[in-house]
Protein: Bilirubin oxidase
Amino acid sequence: MNSFIDIKRRKFLQYAGIGTATMALAPNWLWAEASPKNNAYLFSNPDVEIGMTAQVTEIPILSGPPTEVWKFSAKLLNGPEGTVEEIPGSYLGPILRLRKGQKVRIHFHNNVPGPCVVHQHGLHVPEKSDGHPHYAIDSGQTYSYDFQVLNRAGTYWYHSHTHRVTGHRVYFGLAGLLLVSDEEERALNLPGGDYEIPLVIQDRQFGNRNELHYVHGMHDRMTGFLGDQILVNGFPDFELPVATRAYRLRILNGSNSRIYKLAWSDGTPMTVIASDGGLLEKPERYPYVTLAPAERVELWVDFSGRKVGSEIKLQSLPFSGATPRMGGGMGRGHGRGRHGHGSSALPNGAGFSIMKVRIVRKEEVNQKLPERLSTIRSHQIQEAENPDHPRTIRLSMRPHSPRLNGRSFRMTAVADEEVFKLNSLQLMEFVNRDRRARGMMMAHPMHIHGQPFQIVKREVLPGFQQDYATLSEGFISSGWRDTVLVMPGEKVTLLKPFEDYEGLFLYHCHNTEHEDLDMMRNFQVRA
Ligand code: C2O
Ligand code: CU
Structure:
């Protein structure tokens, strides 16, 4: 006979998209983690207080019946105006706007089945407010996250980070943007209001009752899930009406595993003003921008000189040339352009339109792109605590198990090499080479929690061709980042500071299906 816990577990696993075959294998500690937690209170008087819930609801996305989604809702309880903006009609959580220096408290109430936790992606916050799955709360419980905004102005986001179901939760909607501003950014007077457009790009797959379809088996998990329909801010066939003037587009790749090669349809270069960790020193131009899951990019685009009534598309270019396996074709040759595993008619690497921009209005006043945006102190290898001994993280794939240095995630486990000294700068490298499983190598968008890092260099490893050239011209390596796409046969060297907070934090692949297959580890910051 089923005990209560078994029923609860089955229900949870069903929501998690995990079939009955694996149910018996679900470890008990998965449940042990969802016990009541002490709030992460830091201050008695926060500057901003937000009430947030996660709940299952229905939203019309396509024509016909509404779609069941999981959604964050939030309300400003206290603090300056305009901090919480709902996107009407979207399954995405509201856009939270914060300022650098603010003391923030988020009261999170979990109203979805099973445990849930909220991670502020890209923000540098204390362990208890970082959304580590260890701090997940069970359905019906409330937990308060306290943190001070230490980050520079930038486009950040928040999403569920519940153990083994991050992909499922984010896919069904548990994500939203978190925009930080600061003095430096405000002084630039960049296009704001109606001229500042947040864009969250995601791919989804719908069944014939408009229900969302998620992973269909281990193959989808190993490649990462790919939808066949592109949504922007939660809407299909997204159109953006604009005036003949300059705009600031703040783009998040909120997809589970899809990599985009963003470009304007008429060949206009992409003018990049910011990446994950905020403004670049000066605008940079790219033929296209490669944007992996969880990465952000901010574009400046000037529509002045265009005719009212004309249109331009933001598209994803096909990955041409000897593109390595990007997912959607893993283990089946290159797999591009065919229905690799029956779940996606739109493989990673296909070309398609993301949204249409329609010029609808003439406007005489315009703004000029600043020549300088910010000052970034670029760190040197010699400043690192370990200039001659980088911490190496090897990315590898075993059947059913992508790994980091040969290890899988354990809730609180930390290896010796995963301990970092508080207030140090560390030289680190991601190495994507797998001698034992070369045929299974994939591109991995690697994310490190805590402070952002600087990319020192990207190198093709000996014995590999530069076969990723088709994507690499679109890599943004300047500025501060928290996620970096590491291509098969590539080594990426970076410098990362570990300041302010001791504690247990995560690093992982942000292909969320890989993350849920435990391609994730803890690191410990210790004085
Ligand atoms: Cu956006 Cu640990 O994740
Ligand atoms: Cu991965």
